[in-house]
Design a protein that fits this description.
mainly alpha
Length: 74
């Protein structure tokens, strides 16, 4: 077998979230696995990398704010 330079990764995801994502992607002919690969490619592509970084920073800030709000609500 030839080494094609690819690696396999394993991502753990909640079963309910996976079902929701699968339903969202189905009309576009994508599987969650294909969408994940496309996301990685988008992040690595020099033409779209800056936009990907902007989105990642925003999502991280939103997640941190949610975590702070959850902690403060306890």
């Amino acid at each position: 077998m030839m080494d094609d330079g690819k690696v396999t990764i394993t991502i753990e995801i909640d079963a309910e979230l996976l079902a929701q994502v699968t339903d969202v992607l189905k009309p576009y002919g994508l599987t969650p696995e294909e969408a994940a690969v496309q996301f990685f490619e988008y992040c690595a592509d020099p033409k779209t990398q800056d936009h990907a970084i902007t989105l990642l920073k925003r999502w991280k800030e939103e997640q941190e704010a949610q975590e702070r709000n959850s902690t403060n609500a306890k």
